[in-house]
Design a protein that fits this description.
The chain is an alpha/beta fold. The chain contains 15 helices and 14 strands. The strands form four sheets. Strands 2-3-4-5-6-8-10-11 form an eight-stranded parallel β-barrel, surrounded by four helices. Strands 1-14 form a two-stranded antiparallel sheet. A two-stranded parallel sheet has the order 7-9. The radius of gyration is 21 Å and the shape is globular. Bound molecules: 5-hydroxymethyl-3,4-dihydroxypiperidine.
Amino acid sequence: MEEKKEKQILKFPAGFLWGTATSSHQVEGNCKNNWTAWEKENAQRLASEAKDKWQDWQQEKFPEMFDSQNYISDQACDHYNKFEEDFDLAKEIGNNAHRFSIEWSRIEPEEGKFDEKEVEHYRKVILALRERGMEPFVTLWHWTEPVWFCENGGWTNKKSVAYFERFSKKIAESLKNNVKFWIVANEPNVGLGFGYFLGFQPPGKKGPINFLKAYFNLLKAYKKAYLAIHEIDGKAQVGFAHSFVPYESDIFWPIGKLVIFVGEYFSKYFVRKNEGYFDFIGCNYYLRHSISLKKKTFLKENISDLGWEIYPKGIYDTLIRLKKYNLPVYITENGIADCSDEKRGKFIKDHLQFIHQAISEGVDVRGYFYWSLMDNFEFPDVRGFWPRFGLIEIDFETLERKPRKSFYEYGKICKNNILEI
Ligand code: IFM
């Protein structure tokens, strides 16, 4: 006879923040930034390359990847106009925080000229969150650039540091009264890796020289923005969201060890170089890198629609390694592309179980933001609309919002501050 497993009740610390995350270009719709023209110019090419890029099962399941429209963000989720409706849904599941980004190209469409109407728009967004009892986490750079900035060389231009500092100051001065948490940059490694090294996403620059110039300028810009925001509001909490990817390898010693060392060294360089300049750690966790000489195959139940391995223990390993910083940690992104919503509920619970374990071992985790509130225009590598990360399904034709089962499962956890397993 099968033994009945006792239910475990895992309580999260009082005041724990529960939320979801989005970024402007991925949800707002009708942005006019450096992605807008690029998407139109490259959509046909991206649709024809899908054949070589994705596996047979993915091609069968998501035929929309062969349609060039998949790669044009266009109206996206029209969150720009529907933010109140969307926040009502987030409130319904007991969220007490929300992460989003400010679209720089709306605020500063021309160099040095700020559009006050757009500043006002984001003020309303923040107030809408506050009215619903949600703490705003505001991202300043989530990979998109104003067209003028991009035409001036983007992050490869030395002046990018001053341009970004000016934008950061403007936003902090305008919104400081209602914002405590600032995420200056999102996943610098990934954004610059795809956009400035591989050239797979806007601005489409390639090679180590472009990458290194962009990387070191962003490092400087980050620090300047950190100091500027603190000067404007001494009580602000400022940091960045980093993509933490634990490295593992089964390659024989010492080669395997060396591979892990090099991978970890470079992937955490941005964190190391900014030590002393972040008030919290923003941890984005999705998967691990397993480096092997053998071809890795995963069971269907252990992968997402993007083919990423589901590996919840990696979030625990990551958190334990972050303990040495002795700072509050927020899981600023964690999520799964799962169109049928069969895996999402379990994915969230399994990751939260490991987060809870890390908390019980002394890591000061203070919040969790599921990526994403709703299906959106999937960013890295311009994958477009087919990967579905949302707790809420979006019909991109009618823009109808349909909460998935996992929406309510996550809601139960958020409302009670408890995970039952
Ligand atoms: O959609 C992206 C987001 O823009 C950055 N972090 C990873 C997410 C899922 O790929």
